[in-house]
Design a protein that fits this description.
With about 675 residues, the chain is an alpha+beta fold. It is built from 24 helices and 29 strands. Among the domains are: about 60 residues; about 80 residues, Herpes Virus-1 (2-Layer Sandwich); about 70 residues, Signal recognition particle alu RNA binding heterodimer, srp9/1 (2-Layer Sandwich), CATH 3.30.720.200; about 110 residues, Anticodon-binding domain (Rossmann fold, 3-Layer(aba) Sandwich), CATH 3.40.50. It has a nine-stranded mixed sheet. It has a six-stranded mixed sheet with strand order 25-24-26-27-28-29, with helices on both faces. A three-stranded antiparallel sheet has the order 4-9-8. The structure holds adenosine-5'-triphosphate.
């Protein structure tokens, strides 16, 4: 499917023709030209408008869920739009408007309450830009790749797995394709993202895949690193990268976090921040972009204890699971409680189960429809280089199943990588019940300092952290070749026999170093936000179709509207008073005193998902004490209540201290109002 920018580019000439003809009609009318000329010009304007409409429809084919209606709403009410559009835009970058920004902030605030506050997590904010050795050590420099092919004539780059997948999808659309060939393609589609470079190349050749844009042949696939590279500082000597995930900031600060936590495991660090990926083909709106907000948690725990002390709180949470063996054998998903899934070994540990349960609770509270939420386990060859097990929380949208949260078991991979690269001590200390005897390798040197100057400290640190196997391996190398080569901070250093001496002895110890294991839930807020919008998009049938959003109050961009029934001056003091009292309760509100019927204005507030609306009318002014109506968005029911308590009632509703059902039993339903859900 074409990106929004591509669509806009194709529509621009037609829009111009419509505008020109519109101007022409206006000129003719103003100059009181003959009626026949005006009618001809109007007919031409209609023809051009129709041409534009047809093209728009062709580029945005309607599907079961009417995405184009949602997109129109999102554009009109400025949830988000392509960045720099007045310069023609750049694919994969988006700006959030007031509604989108407020909604995203609500998601972040709820995330902090649900995870950081609830679990006493240690939230940090680390730099978005990191020097190259960090990503060399973490493996991103060598392995954070997508495979791309080039159009052999135009040189345009295309993501190889997506290209192959789209081609296979097209083949499957052919109803005449039957039997084994159909099954082979279905099977291949389930593992397209996990094919190796060689396998991808073979399949692209086998199915004679061509560029969908030009129909030209494509090259063999080649690796493309997704990180944005830059130079840090004016002299250009230090290479750096914008982070593709926020987690490295938490790993490199592990020691300080542990100390802050009084040296105790387990604990969780959390971070919200921007991540940057130079995606080959950004597409599908917010779903695949080049800059996005991530919320990540690193739960550090003892590798021999993968329980979670709060497991019981999620034991009964029902989730839909799609384990890897079901994907291979074509079996359907399983709906089960977290407890049963762990007991039956579907989920590997109570710790992983705990986080899947918490993720599910967060997403559904935010408005994800549980029917369209599943947890899919990664296939072994699909996992990121750092993971040993991974479950993605996927939401079904009109684009298919979309990964919104990844929950990976990163074991001790990252901490060990940074220890290896820097010699830093990134481990916890455990006091043993009984002392044990261990081999100590003590390295001494007089010449390393002279030979390696600034690097000497790191080298000696590196040696002091060696495990026994590596120490023995180095002993042998020194004996055999009189030198050893070590890789520190991405530099290969040669240490000769005369530079270093090792003293080895047994020692009884009471404390051991532990490199913790890590479970990492990683939330992409753009994808979550879009999925929530799709899951809550509704149409009210009536004289005219009105689109609206059934967003849960905590997520809604604005919580309450304040509406004067008409433009009467007497309403103003009440409107001001209500708006400021709502603010005192921390309830965001929007006064809509624009012209237009009250019905139209309610419809406008429903469009951005405002859950409650207070209306000031003639009775407000005449009643003593003053009364107002309070309307609930989903049912469109209204109650009448005293103006001075209305803000508090809305505040209680928004904060979940009461429900609408309870509220309508306490106050009177406004005359003639019934549930119109
Ligand atoms: N290009 C992107 N645009 C928007 N969100 C993204 C993008 N890449 C990743 N995310 C979000 O970040 C989360 C964690 O990133 P992770 O590295 O697990 O994704 P990923 O497996 O690389 O995603 P994908 O396979 O879709 O590229 C994802 O669950 C998703 O919500």
């Amino acid at each position: 499917m074409a990106s929004e920018i591509e669509i806009e580019q194709q529509l621009a000439p037609l829009r111009l023709l419509v505008k020109e003809q519109g101007d022409r009609v206006r000129e003719l009318k103003e100059s009181q030209a003959p009626k026949a000329d005006i009618s001809r010009a109007v007919a031409e304007l209609k023809r051009r408008k129709k041409q534009l409409e047809d093209k728009e429809k062709a580029l945005n084919p309607p599907d079961e869920f009417n995405r184009s209606q949602l997109e129109t709403l999102l554009k009109q009410r400025f949830f988000y739009r392509p960045s720099f559009s007045i310069y023609g835009g750049i694919a994969g970058l988006y700006d959030f408007g007031p509604t989108g920004c407020a909604m995203k902030n609500n998601l972040l605030q709820e995330w902090r309450l649900h995870f950081v506050l609830e679990e006493d997590m240690l939230e940090i904010e680390s730099s978005s830009l990191a020097p190259e050795p960090v990503f060399k050590a973490s493996g991103h420099l060598d392995r954070f790749l997508d495979y791309v092919v080039k159009d052999v004539k135009t040189g345009e780059c295309l993501r190889a797995d997506h290209l192959l997948d789209a081609h296979l999808e097209k083949l499957l659309a052919d109803k005449n394709l039957e039997g084994d060939s159909r099954q082979e393609i279905i099977n291949l589609r389930t593992k397209v993202e996990s094919l190796s470079l060689q396998e991808l190349g073979d399949q692209i050749k086998k199915f004679e895949v061509k560029s969908p844009v030009t129909g030209n042949n494509v090259s063999d696939p080649m690796p493309f690193n997704l990180m944005f590279r830059t130079e840090i500082g004016p002299s250009g000597g230090v290479s750096g990268y914008l982070r593709p995930e926020t987690s490295q900031g938490m790993f490199v600060n592990f020691d300080y976090l542990l100390e802050y936590n009084q040296g105790k495991l387990p604990f969780a660090a959390a971070q919200i921040g921007s991540a940057f990926r130079n995606e080959v083909s950004p597409r599908s709106g917010l779903l695949r972009v080049r800059e996005f907000t991530l919320g990540e948690i690193e739960y550090f725990y003892h590798p021999n204890d993968n329980d979670h002390f709060k497991f019981d709180s999620v034991a009964d949470v029902e989730v839909t699971l799609f384990p890897k063996d079901h994907q291979v054998s074509g079996k359907p998903t399983r709906k089960m409680s977290i407890k049963n899934a762990v007991d039956e070994g579907v989920i590997g540990s109570r710790c992983m189960g705990y986080f899947l349960g918490r993720i599910s609770l967060y997403l559904t509270k935010m408005g994800i429809d549980p029917k369209y939420l599943r947890f899919r386990q990664h296939m072994d060859n699909e996992m990121a280089h750092y993971a040993t097990d991974c479950w993605d929380a996927e939401c079904k949208t009109s684009y298919g199943w979309v990964e919104c949260v990844g929950c990976a078991n990163r074991s001790c991979y990252d901490l060990k990588c940074h220890v290896k690269a820097t010699g830093a001590s990134l481990c916890a200390r455990e006091t043993l019940k009984e002392p044990i005897s261990v081999t100590i390798n003590e390295y001494h040197s007089s010449k390393v300092g002279k030979a390696f100057k600034g690097d000497a400290k790191k080298i000696m640190q590196y040696f002091s952290n060696l495990d026994n196997d590596t120490a023995e391996k180095y002993d042998k190398m020194l004996k055999d070749t009189s030198q050893i080569e070590v890789d520190i901070d991405s530099k290969k250093l040669t240490i000769s026999e005369d530079m270093i001496a090792v003293k080895r002895y047994e020692k009884e110890i009471h404390v051991v170093d532990i490199t913790p294991s890590v479970i990492e839930p990683s939330f992409g807020f753009g994808r979550i936000l879009y999925s929530i919008l799709e899951h809550n998009f509704r149409i009210r049938e009536g004289d005219e179709q009105r689109s609206w959003l059934s967003l849960p109050p905590p997520v809604a961009p604005v919580k309450c509207s304040v509406l004067p029934l008409s433009a009467k001056k007497e309403f103003d003091p009440y409107i001001k008073q209500l708006a400021s009292e709502l603010k005192l309760h921390g309830i965001s509100n929007k006064v809509d005193d624009s012209a237009g019927s009250i019905g139209r204005r309610y419809a406008r507030t429903d469009q951005i998902g405002i859950p409650y609306g207070i209306t000031v009318d003639f009775d407000t002014v005449t009643n003593n004490p003053a009364t107002v109506t309070l309307r609930e968005r989903n049912t469109m029911q209204q109650i009448r209540l005293n103006a001075d308590i209305a803000p508090k009632v809305v505040s209680d509703l928004v904060k979940g201290l009461t429900t609408w059902k309870e509220t309508i039993t306490k106050y009177h339903l406004f005359e003639g109002q019934e549930s119109k859900k």
